[in-house]
Amino acid sequence: LLPILVIALILFCTISTIRRDRALSKSILALCGVISAGCAVITSFGLLSICGVRLVQIALITPFLVLSIGIDDMFLMLATWNRIVAQNKSVPLVILLQKTYEQSVCSILLTTIDNVLVFIVGTISIFPIMRIFCIYCVVSLIVVFIFQATLFGACITLDGVKQFTGESSFICIPF
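Structure tokens predicted for SSD domain-containing protein (175 residues):
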């Protein structure tokens, strides 16, 4: 069931960012956001495995939960980027990215802190399985924030470079 949900999320993200103008269409960038969140989930599970935290069955819900939060962060950054680019067409790319981070990362950080605090409270549960689930969620949420702020930010920059040079995508597929 989880692979079907992940495929549905990927399709939703790519389809919802398609625009008539190819330069404004961000479907590849949305795919990069999903991949970034997925890499964060894999990284967090690997870190917890290295630290010796055992994987319990309920913790397998964490990838879908964290992937959804990472996609939400991606949509927030994309919407902010599109709004700032539309308002400031003659501003250098570095300034556009700086304004995007100023306006989007603060709200993403606040929601991440709220989510992390909720799951930290869950780690004091008397049920060991619930504690492990909350540990997985805390680590995964922190890692997905870091990945979305760095890796996805780099993808936005690459896409911005291509957008300002008149190319339609930052990969070499002509569509």
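The radius of gyration is 18 Å.
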